[in-house]
Design a protein that fits this description.
Number of domains: 1
Distance between the termini: 51 Å
Shape: elongated
Length: about 160
Amino acid sequence: MNLSYMWPILTILLALVLLIKNKDDLNKNKVIEIWLVSILVIMVGLGSIWAFLGHTFMADQIAAYIGWPAGNPFQFEVACTNLAFGVLGVLCWKIRDNFWTATIIGYTIFFWGAAYGHIVDMINQANYAPGNVGAPLYMDIILPLILIGLLIAYKKTLTFEADNF
């Protein structure tokens, strides 16, 4: 069963709930903040914890999905990295400001590095497994770009709105 759409759907649902809950206090900065925290908590946080669980407790199935050989000890290291970013993402619910920046920087480095590895594996090993060059590869590239864009917009609108009061 493919659950890859679960995280974006949960992210959108959380953002919609928060937008409705804060409807009387919405401005451009608040809307961006809601989308940013929703992505950090759900996609980065819970999604990364889910990846940790898969790489840890269903390691052989996940390895096959990615096109990796089963039993590779590096897979547990990837799992622990996912757990670290999962915890950081969930903590973004309460810890804000530069914590968000640090989380996004680390997440971007890890996932762009993973994307690079998947592309090299595709070129050098002809690994066209869905977990190597499918949706996970695109998300490894696109989600950090979305996070960086939202963070920049959030900080710019925060400064703009503070300057106008």
